[in-house]
Amino acid sequence: MPEYYPFNPEPRAAQQSPPVNSCDAQFHVFGPTDVYPPRPEAPFNMPSATIGAALKMHRALGIERGIIVQATTYGADHSVILDALKQAGPNYRGCANAIVLKEREEAYIEALHSAGVRGARFTFRKELGVGLSSKEFRLAADRLRELGWYMKIQPEKNGILESVELYENITTPVLIDHLGRADADLGVDDPNVQKTIELLKKGNFWVMLSLGEKISTQGPPWDDVLPIARAYIDAAPDRVVWASDWPHPLSKSPPPNDAELLELLYRYAPGEVERQKILVDNPAELFGFGR
Fold first, then answer.
1. Distance between CA atoms of 191 and 185, rounded to whole angstroms?
2. 231: number of Cβ within 10 Å
3. How far apart are CA 217 and CA 182, in angstroms?
4. For residues 208 and 225, what is the distance between their CA atoms, to the nearest angstrom?
5. Residue 92 in 3-state DSSP?
6. Which residues make Cβ contacts (< 8 Å) with residue 112, sequence separation at least 6?
7. Are 159 and 181 in contact (CB under 8 A)?
8. Is 189 exposed, middle or buried (0-12, 13-18, 19+ CB in 10 A)?
9. Is residue 162 a contact partner of residue 194, using CB atoms and an 8 Å limit?
10. Helix, strand, or coil here: 246?
11. Closest CA to 226 of 278, 269, 277
């Protein structure tokens, strides 16, 4: 496996505490390898990014809720998610990798649901090796609807346009990751951004305000992603959520401290009402907290 930069092991608090019951809409857990071995063809692993390390980061930030998203490292084996949910407690939910809907039996899917999994991530990054054919996608989407789960979209690095025809007419909740993988140089004129805004107008599409630090081409303080995030907030203030994407897999440069990413959100949404929606109310609605 190639080497990527690790997460910052010493999380700090943000300059301003988030609202009570704030939610990190995506983070991953890994390792240790002797307990959770990666699939043989996995392109990466981060064995020290355990649930304990993740919860330490959340405590430092003042985050009380979170969504543990299955990493492609483990494919359809969700043992790491099931165990992490037990340790994290009732303020946490899980998001499966959609490959599980193809490869595992019904009893396994039901066990995931019972443990707190409420969505499945459909990965379009070909390099990660867990994609579905068009037919498999449709079958998985049908099962998702039966389960009452939301669909999560991980776009290719060049955006959503080459895959969007598969899911643009889905009627269940659809969460698009990582600002739709917008092109920061094009800003709000990027066709990916315009398409994401179009989808947001449908009423069942959501977007995750995450990965701004990687999408930016200017580097810290990532000013070039502000107009993109702001366009999404303005388009659908009740259907945007924030995520750290900890431990920042596949980072080709040292990741920022996660407090910096929360502070970036504060620049996207400077008002308390908007922050309350993005960090608390919106994720509570999508992920089912308090219900």
1. 12
2. 20
3. 11
4. 13
5. strand
6. 78, 81, 82, 94, 96, 100
7. yes
8. exposed
9. no
10. strand
11. 269
The Cα-based distances of 286 to 17, 159, 241 in angstroms read: 23, 23, 9
pLDDT in tens, the chain (291 residues): 666 898 999 999 999 999 999 999 999 999 999 999 999 989 889 999 999 999 999 999 999 999 999 999 999 999 999 999 999 999 999 999 999 999 999 999 999 999 999 999 999 876 665 689 999 999 999 999 999 999 999 999 899 999 999 999 999 999 999 999 999 999 999 999 999 999 999 999 999 999 999 999 999 999 999 999 999 999 999 999 999 999 999 998 899 999 999 999 999 999 999 999 999 999 999 999 974
Q: pTM higher than 0.90 for the full model?
A: yes
Cα-based distances in Å from 141 to 6, 94, 111, 122, 250: 34, 17, 19, 10, 27
The CA-atom distances, in angstroms, between 204 and each of 26, 72, 169, 192, 255 are 19, 26, 10, 18, 32
CA distance 195 to 269: 22
Treating both helix axes as pointing N-terminal to C-terminal, what angle do 226-235 and 258-268 enclose, rounded to 10 degrees?
A: 60
| Rounded-to-integer distance, Cα 174 and Cα 205, Å | 5
Dihedrals φ, ψ of 66, to 5°? -165, 160
Q: Which amino acid does the sequence have at 220?
A: P
Q: What Å distances lie between residue 207 and 6, 102, 196, CA to CA?
A: 26, 25, 8
Q: How far apart are CA 12 and CA 245, in angstroms?
A: 16
- 271's CB contacts (< 8 A; 6+ apart) are none
Distance of CA 86 to the CA centre of its chain: 20
Torsion on CA atoms 22, 108, 100, 55, rounded to nearest 10: 30
Alpha helices in 62-115 (DSSP H): 79-88, 99-103, 106-115
**Which one-letter amino acid corresponds to residue 150?**
Y
CA–chain centroid gap for 148, Å, is 18
